[in-house]
Amino acid sequence: MIEARALGRRVDLAGNAQPLTILDDISFAVGAGESVAIVGASGSGKSTLLGLLAGLDTPSSGEVRVDGQSLFALDEDERAALRGARIGFVFQSFQLLPALTALENVMLPLELAGVASAEAQARHWLERVGLAGRIGHYPRQLSGGEQQRVALARAFAPRPSLLLADEPTGNLDAGTGAAIIDLLFSLNREHGTTLLLVTHDEALAARCGRQLRMRAGRLAEAVPA
What we know:
Distance between the termini: 19 Å
Helix content: 25-40%
């Protein structure tokens, strides 16, 4: 489903300083329907890696392939189109648009994709995540857990084949985070979506089929289920 080949990311520093290596020679593949956790300490390169896999940033070396398509052989508009059609996102900070209601936030990717039944589908997904009674509320009127449920509904509504999640419970208390993770894995099983998530939470990582452990910008080890 998605593959990284010798992926590297370096940042040039001022003056004659050596470039800062953030990622170095990362290679792995994730099959369709797999659930994989990327784990490691803060600063190990996890979120940078996820950004490259999504095509939100460009690598200094190597490539990413999504369903056999080389991501960085595409131009920026083509990568955006691929993301819209194939990839869903869940972020630690929710990334909801504050001026839109819960319903409008979930409708947005559907409308951008030209889905005629965007409102009906958005309502369906908000019901699935337990927010049927909150569809007209704005993000500021929702709790953190409710905002993350809206984000899950938005991510799953276009029925992506790949879901990328960056610390999806990072801003939630333990109880709310556990409920969100139960929902995430439930939706994932039902729809056969490939799941790749970044997390500090070892319990969350253990629920994935396998783990990729990062250390100082390198892939240190792969941990099977």
